[in-house]
Amino acid sequence: MNTCAPRPIVVAQAASASHCANCDARHRSVCNAISTDDLERLAASAIPKVFAKGQLFIEEGEKAGDFFNVTRGTAKLYKMLPDGRQQITGFASAGHFLGLAVSDTYAFSAEAIEPVELCRFSRSKLRVLLDDFPALEKRLLQTACNELVAAQEQMLLLGRKTARERLASFLSTRIAEAAACGEHGSTISLPMTRAEIADYLGLTIETVSRTFTRFKAEGKITLPSRDEVQICDLDWLNGVASGQDHHAFA
Amino acid sequence: MNTCAPRPIVVAQAASASHCANCDARHRSVCNAISTDDLERLAASAIPKVFAKGQLFIEEGEKAGDFFNVTRGTAKLYKMLPDGRQQITGFASAGHFLGLAVSDTYAFSAEAIEPVELCRFSRSKLRVLLDDFPALEKRLLQTACNELVAAQEQMLLLGRKTARERLASFLSTRIAEAAACGEHGSTISLPMTRAEIADYLGLTIETVSRTFTRFKAEGKITLPSRDEVQICDLDWLNGVASGQDHHAFA
DNA sequence: CGCACACTTGAACCCCCTCAACCCAAGTGG
DNA sequence: CCACTTGGGTTGAGGGGGTTCAAGTGTGCG
């Protein structure tokens, strides 16, 4: 169900019947479970949509009428406590499927942290698609399992890792994800702010900033710009991320 | 796939062909996706097994050859860091399906914290079952989604809640689960030790103990025995669990 | 240029952790 | 029957990692 409007962006109704066929994100998403011949069917159910930075498109507790598949940009998924404390449970970028839930209300909120393109599926249309394409359902199950594994890893991070280990894990994961997408450089771009990193890692913005500074002072990273990090010592980073030498310095 | 040996326990090969039909946990588990007529097929693939308290039956990193469905008792699922720090990601009791993973190695370990009965499925046999019973796959997807929602809730707890809120959330969830199983009392039994509660909530054993003591001193709970908690003020508990009055006392 | 916003840095504090002692109930064996 | 052990739990004192509060430093953009 990963469908994306061809660039330059064309609005929903005007989209070509085969917008799924031209989708950059298709091969990364659950939509690759649909054969090329059936893409028309898929495209007919998927409504492309665009959200600007800062726009909320899923709100925790609201009626869960739609599913989404991100095709471009990044969104943050988060839960909040009544007094404003926020926990980001993940960042969704191209290929990410959102809204998987049995309950009839969303369990989390989603907000674009940079311009986001995505495809919207109504609950009912998705159900029909799932019935017609069993492979799609298999693929969704796979996706859900992968997210479950990631969630468990994040629980380990939040429950037991130090601030240094958390940030190292974060950077390490981002490097690995970039590599999985074919980008093998040692520099990562961070579309999210320090505050969002903090809310993702269960820390405060100040601790994130200080930890970045310390890594830099130790010569393990450089910060070419606000939203870029260059990793100088990847082995060291992975070591810290995996929790080796909890109480060693240097 | 929830199958359980009729009590008294009968060992695998000797199990009746319809052990699934007599399984207490069937209606709570994914096995309820299989019609009564097809239970024989299910029972043929499910191998009942028993583990004593303390036995490890899934080891993180090992080859993931089997899936399990708990039919009795409780197991802890956890991940560990090289220096021994442990994070329990969940407790699996009757009806819980284990091993969902795309990767070919387990992402977590599982250990019985009280005597556990479960059914084992080989990867290959489960695949055949899934192909033959699409409803089973649908059910598994549902289960995975529910666990994902629970995992997100746990991330909020680990990342943003105080020790008081964590313990309150833990007790609140346990009360709700008991109610969902038809037990509507105000007393919960805790099969796990304080250390396991701590490893689940991202705290230390001392903090868990102290927080229990404080709740008791405030008259919100009583501790009839080591492994029982009686909730005196459920509304208060749910309020603390949901993070209201972060900085209020009383 | 100057405002707004994101980020950094510093100092004081506090919640929870660490370390250590102690309690208590259930075995175990002489 | 009681001394001893063992494992889980509680309680206390002190310390530290991260938070809180507050000020300062860029930096992009109208």
Q: Can I get a quick summary?
A:
2 copies of one chain form a homodimer. Chain A contains 7 helices and 11 strands.
Task: Considering the chains and any ligands shown, give keywords for the structure.
homodimer; 250 residues; alpha+beta; Jelly Rolls; Arc Repressor Mutant, subunit A; 2 domains; 4-stranded antiparallel beta sheet; 7 helices; 11 strands; globular; disordered N terminus; DNA-binding
CATH second-level architecture of the largest domain in chain A: Sandwich
Assign the CATH topology of the largest domain in chain A: Jelly Rolls
Shape of chain A: globular
User: Which percent range describes the beta-strand content of chain A?
Assistant: 15-25%
Strand order of the largest sheet of chain A: 1-8-3-6
CATH class of the largest domain in chain A: Mainly Beta
Greatest interface: A-B, 44 and 44 residues
Largest sheet of chain A: 4 strands, antiparallel
CATH 4th-level superfamily of the largest domain in chain A: Jelly Rolls
Which quaternary structure do these chains form? homodimer
Number of domains of chain A: 2
Distance between the termini of chain A: 47 Å
Contiguous uncertain segments of 5+ residues of chain A: 1-15
Q: What is the tally of beta strands of chain A? A: 11
Helix content of chain A: 25-40%
> Radius of gyration of chain A, Cα only, in angstroms?
19 Å
H/E topology pattern of chain A: HEEEEEEEEHHHEHHEEH
Q: Which class do the helix and strand fractions of chain A yield?
A: alpha+beta
**Mean pLDDT over all positions of chain A:** 90
Given the structure, what is the number of helices of chain A? Answer: 7
